[in-house]
Write a structure and sequence with these properties.
Elements lengths: L8 H23 L9 H20 L2 H13 L3 H9 L14 H11 L5
Helix pairs in contact: 1-2, 1-3, 1-4, 2-3, 3-4
């Protein structure tokens, strides 16, 4: 058996940032498809692949990936950061973004984001 791979906090932070950003882009594209007509089905699929890759990078790191995502959310309590934290919870294991019910995800995020001052 091999020892676990070392965790690189800076790389995990980048994964968390990019995953949150890509969720925000995806969410906006779903809400307002007319804003960016170039974001067709193929490009949306590629965006989701990139988002999944960043989430997987955090998942592979286990508890440390979740810790970094939670720290990002504490610093930037935005929908994208909350989405990443939620996708790293044990009960979300095996879930893929494309298979989520987008309306339910948006409702969860709205209900669980801190109120702005």
């Amino acid at each position: 058996m091999y020892p676990p791979a070392p965790v690189l906090p800076e790389m995990l932070r980048q994964h968390a940032e990019q995953a949150a950003f890509l969720w925000t882009v995806y969410d906006r594209a779903m809400l307002f498809p007319e804003e960016n007509p170039e974001l067709d089905a193929l490009r949306l699929a590629r965006l989701l692949e990139r988002l999944e890759a960043h989430l997987d990078g955090l998942r592979v790191a286990g508890a440390e990936g979740l810790r970094v995502a939670e720290a990002r959310f504490a610093e930037y309590p935005e929908a994208g950061e909350l989405f990443v934290v939620r996708m790293l919870q044990p009960e979300a294991e095996g879930l893929r973004v494309a298979g989520l019910e987008w309306g339910r995800v948006r409702a969860y995020l709205a209900a669980n984001l801190p109120l702005s001052p």
